[in-house]
Every structure is written in C-alpha cells, then in structure tokens.
Amino acid sequence: MSSRTLIHGGLVITASDEIHADVLIEDGRIAALAASGTPAAEAFTAERSIDATGKYVIPGGVDAHTHMELPFGGTFASDTFETGTRAAAWGGTTTIVDFAVQSVGHGLREGLDAWHAKAEGNCAIDYGFHMIVSDVNQETLKEMDLLVEEGVTSFKQFMAYPGVFYSDDGQILRAMQRSAENGGLIMMHAENGIAIDVLVEQALARGETDPRYHGEVRKALLEAEATHRAIKLAQVAGAPLYVVHVSAMEAVAELARARDEGLPVFGETCPQYLFLSTDNLAEPDFEGSKYVCSTPLRPKEHQAKLWQGLRTNDLQVVSTDHCPFCFVGQKELGRGDFSKIPNGLPGVENRMDLLHQAVVDGHISRRRWIEIACAAPARMFGMYPKKGTITPGADADVVIYDPHAEQIVSAETHHMNVDYSAYEGKRLTGRVETVLSRGEPVITEREYTGHAGHGVYTPRSTCQYLN
After folding, report:
1. What is the four-CA torsion angle of 173, 176, 180, 184, rounded to 10 degrees?
2. What is the rounded (10 degree) CA torsion for 135, 137, 142, 147?
3. Is the bond leading into 264 cis (omega within 30 degrees of zero)?
4. What is the pLDDT of residue 1?
5. How far apart are CA 364 and CA 370, in angstroms?
6. What sign has the CA pseudo-torsion 12, 17, 20, 22?
7. φ, ψ of residue 355 in degrees (nearest 5)
8. CA distances (Å), 194 to each of 152, 199, 340, 344, in order?
9. What is the rounded (10 degree) CA torsion for 345, 116, 95, 133?
10. What's the whole-number average pLDDT of the chain?
C-alpha cells in the first residue's frame, strides 16, 4: 500500500530556490513539486494533506556534529540517542551524524560496533557516524579503508586532549595520507593541546580556578596555530581537511587563506560561537561552567568575523557539537578546578531556530540558512540529495516552519535531557511546527508523534565537494 501526503500553500525554500509550491510525498520520498495554483499542482491527490499557507516548507536539518552518550571526563553526555534525536526533531533536525569513538589500544571496528549498539532501535530520526581515531597504527589505517567502503567516510582527529584523544603530527600525517588514498575526509579538532596543558597548569598554580579561565588558557592563537598546522599537514598529504567548531577570527583567517590558494579545506562553526561569548563564561556563582566547551567561547568581537565567514563561504557548515552535561552533578565536577568541568553544551534542538533568527537579524539570507544547516552538511558528508533538499527522489525529510511565531528559549520547555539551556531567556522569531522524517510525522503541530526506532542508520558516500 502506497501512502501519499500533500503539503500545499507554503513557500518552499532550498539552498538554491524559493518558490510557492505544493509538495507531493509518496512512500517516504518527495514524488513531485509544482507551483501552487497551477494545473500540475491541482492534479496532486493524497490521503493526507498539510496546509502550509503562510509558512516555510524547508528540508529537515542535518546536524553533522553531535555527541550522544559520549564518555568524557569521568561522566557521560546526558542525552541518549533516544532523548537526543527526539530533541533534534523538535528543533527541525531530521538527520544527525554522531561520533563513534576508538579507544586507545582498540580497533576502529570495535568502537563503531559499540556506537551502532547504542543507537540502533533508539533513534527518532535518521543517523550516520563519523569515526574518532585516537590510536593511529597500521591496523587502524587498514580499518579506515574498510570503513570508507561501508559508508563511514569521515575521521576525526584531535590536536588537543593529550592522553585521551590526542594525535601527534606524525599520526595525523599518516591518517591524512590514508584518507588521500581512500577518499575519506579528516575532521580536525584544531587546538594546540600540548601548549594549552602548560597554560592550564600555570593558571591553576596561580589559583585561577573559575570557569572563565577555561577560555583564557585555550587561546585563540593556539586555535589559529593548530588550524594552520593542520592545513599544512593536509597539503603535504594531498588530502582534504574539515576543521570542526571554528571559534576564533584568527582561525577563520587561516581557512580563508587556504581556500584562496585553492586548497580543499573546509570549516564549521556552531551557534554557541555566533551567539555566546566569554561574558557567559564569566557569569558568577559557577554559572559560567554551563558554557565550558572546546574550542571555547571567545570575546564578542569574534562573532562578526564568523558571520562574515559564513557569508563568504570560508565557513560552510553550522553544526552544534551537541554534548550536554547537566549543571547539577556533572558540570559541578569542576568546582574549584575549571580543567575538570566536562566540556560541552546542549544545542541540537536550538540550531535551526537560532539560524532563522540570524535571517531575521540580517546576518544571512533565507537560502543561506538552508545551505549551512541542511544542504552543505549533506554534501560535505555524502548524503545529498537524499538529505538536505526538497527535490523529487529525496527522502521526505520536511519541516513546516512558522517564520512569525515567537518563542522564548528555556530549559523549562526544551526536550534535551539536560537541566539548563545555554540560551535561557533568548527571544526568537520563528518556530518549527511540523516535522516529517521520510514522510512520517515526527512532530505534528507542536506535538511529538514520532517514536524510537523510526530513525535508521544512513551509510554515506565520500565528500561531494571533492567529486
């Protein structure tokens, strides 16, 4: 039995077009589009009809950087795949790409299998995996080839966190050389962790223990230096590079320079760097710990350069780096020692709305909103046009978005499994109304109608900006 849904009367917005069109969905895919009021649109028939008059009809968001259930600093990220993907759906995101972790001394396959076990049967929306490579050796390099073949086509390395995830320049170069051969994409956490650890030790010795010092020791120059070094290593290896969670204007400048030279270098930023700053880290009574993440929040003047990078396409993607830890019992582990505060912020539910606010505020256009939140991440990680757009043949991951609804962000009303909001009290214009995942309603007029297990694992092709 085939099932059809018709979405009519809305403004369909993709990365390339805006058109008043009716969208016909059949068997979980986009079957056809036709300009509203034309004979073609009037010929559409369906069992289920959604009136989108006065609303936007947009592709479901693709959040290519989340950490559900991540073990970190002696605790775990507070969102499970079940709670985290449900919250993502509430925020208009219909695909996440999470990070499976290789532990030192273990293989990539073992880490990937562990993440499959966490996610399978628990997700409200579709999901894929990147692989964190913590231990580069001959076996790891061989496994990278096998993972690319089966649709895990991106590998994250860390220039930070010595003793946990850290790779030295030689290990990074070997992994990059392998990715140059197998078509994989290296994602880099670019901060000079060896130097940062010296500054952490010195700050604590001076009695500088409050959360704000987390931002002060993780210097923008050490992000820029690591970004520059990662670019040069990738250039030596003849490999593409994707730098995650870019927060500093100096790092944006390094990416822009590399791209001006024609290098296959890409950058991502996150809402926290666009909307929050070191002012939040400095909040009294340990409240600043809520904003501890790495790369850290920067002084406000960095925000303008990040927005500029998004407009000029020196930054291509906005992801969340969603890695929530509750204030009570988790962030509090770092009272008296900022280096023990678990690093990470909640945000998977807020990204699409915050970026729509950026449209309202004039930072970006409507189509650029869809580009950086849906289409570019889908292309970057080999899922386009199945994900990230509204076109015949694409998965029917569709959001009916009310651009005029007003909301106030709050932990009281969000659906992430965390006891605070990084954007508490922020007024936003625009809100998700209805969300379809592969044609199935997950959010229906602001009610959750999805279920754990609807979301399926999505293997990915290689980066589509390199084809």
Report:
1. 170
2. 10
3. no
4. 60
5. 10
6. negative
7. -70, -30
8. 29, 9, 17, 20
9. 60
10. 97
Q: Name residue 138's amino acid.
A: Q
Q: Is the pTM of this model over 0.85?
A: yes
Residue with tokens 């994707």: 242
Which amino acid does the sequence have at 183?
G
Nearest to 462 by CA among 62, 95, 152: 152
Query: CA-CA distance, 22 to 26, in Å (whole number)?
Result: 13
Distance CA 393, CA 378 (A): 15
| 185: CB partners within 8 A, 6+ apart | 153, 154, 155, 179, 240, 241, 242, 380, 381, 462, 463, 466
Q: Alpha carbon of 206 to those of 199, 200, 279: distances in Å?
A: 11, 10, 22
- Please give the span between the terminal C-alpha atoms of the chain, in angstroms, as a whole number: 38
Q: Which residue has the tokens 């049967």?
A: 121
pLDDT at 389: 98
pLDDT tier at 2 (50, 70, 90 boundaries)?
confident
Angstrom CA distances, 176 to 58, 104, 147, 235, 384, stand at 35, 19, 15, 9, 24
Amino acid of residue 88: A
Beta bridge partners of 429: 406
CA distance 173 to 188: 12
Beta bridge partners of 441: 436
Which position has the token pair 């009281």?
412
